[in-house]
């Protein structure tokens, strides 16, 4: 089954799809190895990994696509990609969709924030008018070559105009053809319930540690009505803490000995990244 078809199936299954966010290619492989059905990559984690900077539309479309391509090539599970605002107008949106589909991603989302965008849980967001976003969605849907390639519409209108406007936009985006809807940053469970009662589409929840939304278990989100939950920055935050603790250990003690129980071993790591298989393939050409 195609990865696009698989992702669409997982979204429509009765059980909520839990999709962790990768920080880099290695973490994408770890996510797959633990047994998750799909992985996502977002602009927040990518900007931190590639630039060491905040999420703010600093990465170009080609930089993002290059990063995603490495992940899509490294894992066998579906990859769900961040299309940002589409990286421009409707023709830019078409180019973005074509590039992301071409590198093997199973789906993507575009959002209605005004460029340059901000993380959805930060202050100062602005959104484009409905007509502009509808045009972008039409362009995105027209650009895909595989009808199973999932295109999700994200709206950040809740923080700007309130929940009524966000729900109206969500249903408009669904009517335009979006496969899934993401209303970013509801602040209460009551808002989350209302979203799932009034939006006529599969929905996605964002479990962001320290964000504006309640941090809820996947099962609770499933009961509320969500089809998908992402953990977009959990890996990034875990890496930042672990590396800080490791560097503190080396700085204070001049050794990693006190940290070894929190590290993978040399042999384990080489096995995980496929060193033996690579050597076998290499030698097969000399026989």
Automatic annotation (TrEMBL):
Please give the catalytic activity noted in the UniProt record: (2S,3R)-3-hydroxybutane-1,2,3-tricarboxylate = pyruvate + succinate
Provide a Gene Ontology MF annotation, just one: methylisocitrate lyase activity
> Under which EC number(s) is this enzyme classified?
4.1.3.30
Task: Fetch the InterPro entries from UniProt.
Answer: ICL/PEPM, Isocitrate_lyase_ph_CS, Pyrv/PenolPyrv_kinase-like_dom, Pyrv_kinase-like_dom_sf
Task: Using the UniProt record, name the top-level EC class of this enzyme in a single word.
Answer: lyase
Query: What Pfam families would the database entry show?
Result: PEP_mutase (PF13714)
Function field: Involved in the catabolism of short chain fatty acids (SCFA) via the 2-methylcitrate cycle I (propionate degradation route). Catalyzes the thermodynamically favored C-C bond cleavage of (2R,3S)-2-methylisocitrate to yield pyruvate and succinate via an alpha-carboxy-carbanion intermediate.
Q: Which PANTHER family match?
A: CARBOXYVINYL-CARBOXYPHOSPHONATE PHOSPHORYLMUTASE, CHLOROPLASTIC, PHOSPHOENOLPYRUVATE CARBOXYLASE
Q: What family classification does the UniProt entry report for this protein?
A: Belongs to the isocitrate lyase/PEP mutase superfamily. Methylisocitrate lyase family.
Known partners and oligomeric status: Homotetramer; dimer of dimers.
Q: What is this protein called?
A: 2-methylisocitrate lyase
Q: State the species of origin.
A: Desulfonema magnum
